[in-house]
Amino acid sequence: MIILHGSPLSGNTHKVRMALAFLGLAWDERLADAAVRQSDAYRALTPMAQIPLLIDGDFSLRDSQAILVWIAATHRPGEWDGRTPRERGEIAVWLSHAANEIANGPATLRLARQFGATIAEEHAAAVSARILPVVDAHLADRDWLVGDRLTIADLAASPYLALAGEAGIDLGDWPHIAAWTRRIAALPGFPPMPGWPGVADERTA
User: Fold this and answer.
1) Over the stretch 140-157, which tens digit does the pLDDT of each residue have?
2) Which domains does the chain have, with CATH numbers?
3) Residue 189 half-sphere exposure, CB side, CA atoms within 13 Å?
């Protein structure tokens, strides 16, 4: 049985949750809130004390992007992680954007507005202003970030862009991003995510 340590409101956890759900895999999700993550027991599982953390038998892996790479290579090789060197390179670009500009822009602004975190707001707003037009323009003439299908690029990049409204960003200004996030939410098996447009917003602790 796969065990996923995470949080209902974590976009990074939701990246992995989507992958597991779309694959039809069973998993046991365990809440790892701030108190749990500071415990010695959790730090024994992962030295970074972060979420998500995936455990499959005697194998464990941290970092949402790394987990997506492992899931794709294990369960959807080629289809989700690239059929050609070009696709694999393009997917890597979006994994990098997810871990850098999206994380340091929209995701960081959401941390401040939804959870009261102290951030460098001007920097996060400037990073958001750089990445949002890039993503929106890229999606202007395509349904998915890479190729003609869902890949881990979409899974990695979408949660914190779908949740941009919670960061004080109006997705009405970015119609192609908004349409893409709705497209993902319409896929069979999509797991509900509080705050994702078009998905029931019933927050749970």
Assistant:
1) 999 999 999 999 999 999
2) 2-75 (3.40.30.10), 85-185 (1.20.1050.10)
3) 10
